[in-house]
Amino acid sequence: MPPGLKIIRTIQSTNRFEAYEAEYRGQKVFAKKAKADKARELLARVPENSETANRMGQKTDFKFRAPQIYAQNEDWIVTEWIKGGSLGNEVESNPAMITEVLVNFLIVLDKEPASGEEIRKTFKSDSLAAYMAEKLPKNLTADQRKVVSDAKTRFDTLRPTLVPAWQDGDIKPDHIFADPNNPGGFVLVDPEHLDPRWPRFYSLANNFVKYWVRGPKEFSANLVVLFMQKSGLSEDEVFRPLLASIIVRGISLHWEPDYDPGAEQYNVPRSQAMLKVCQAANNFDDLLY
């Protein structure tokens, strides 16, 4: 633990991280502790990623930044405490505003030139059975396993449309706060996943799946529609790579831990329903309506 850090309360505890409200050198701070090697690798990226986010956030009229970093070592990072609640708390009460802000973030990321590095390999093996035998829940029915297999087959036909781009696999309303130091600006917390090797439109897909499964479902459709309107991109440019990433996220929800109460009761059946829609979708009307 960094010298002088005093833990006040635990905000979240997972098998990878623990997050805290804390005090450091007389001020309230946010602290995060890594509990596994992959988590340590992600925390080590935060200073560089924060600089990148700050640079991106100053290039357009839509202003945003990452929290200021106060201390870091192998297991810990201590950052500025951002006052107020995240935009995730307002998705149901003010969906139009949250959609607008999130789309602005996604467009800034999409317009950032990528480095040309190789795209992250979405599945480590071309064989669904080989890669997912240990990950898929053992209690899936034969019909549920067929839905996953069919979705992976559809993904394989879409794979050639994927290209690397700047994305943040964890950008979502829960990680966006109004900037207390800059009225009209925003703060993007937890930028450890920011990287130029994600599949293009991955962040859009991630949010689409999140709200398709957890609700409000209409937020997903409105998000995609507004992104298309504001980005100026055509359906031909977006639909197939977006659908590919939606399928990836839908499959992943079968084994990923979800910390929402009751999520274990709805993740699989709702993601199954979404994958069936993806399997049949040939355009945005099929996917969204």
What's a concise summary of this model?
With 289 residues, this protein is an alpha+beta fold. The chain contains ten helices and ten strands. The longest helix is centred in the last third of the chain and has 18 residues, at 235-252.
Write the layout of secondary structure elements.
Elements: E1 5-13, E2 17-24, E3 27-34, H1 37-44, H2 46-57, E4 64-65, E5 69-72, E6 76-80, H3 95-111, H4 128-132, H5 142-158, E7 164-168, E8 176-178, E9 186-188, E10 194-199, H6 202-214, H7 217-231, H8 235-252, H9 263-280, H10 284-288
Parallel strand pairs: 4-9
Antiparallel strand pairs: 1-2, 2-3, 3-6, 5-6, 7-10, 8-9
Helix pairs in contact: 3-7, 5-8, 5-9, 6-7, 6-8, 6-9, 8-9
How would you describe this protein?
By secondary structure, this protein is of the alpha+beta class. It has two domains: 5-80, Phosphorylase Kinase, domain 1 (2-Layer Sandwich), CATH 3.30.200.20; 87-288, Aminoglycoside phosphotransferase (APH), C-terminal lobe (Aminoglycoside 3'-phosphotransferase, Chain: A, domain 2, Alpha-Beta Complex), CATH 3.90.1200.10. It is built from ten helices and ten strands. The chain has helices at 37-44, 46-57, 95-111, 128-132, 142-158, 202-214, 217-231, 235-252, 263-280, 284-288, and strands at 5-13, 17-24, 27-34, 64-65, 69-72, 76-80, 164-168, 176-178, 186-188, 194-199. Strand 2 and strand 3 (27-34) form a beta hairpin. The longest helix is centred in the C-terminal third of the chain and has 18 residues, at 235-252. The mean pLDDT is 92.
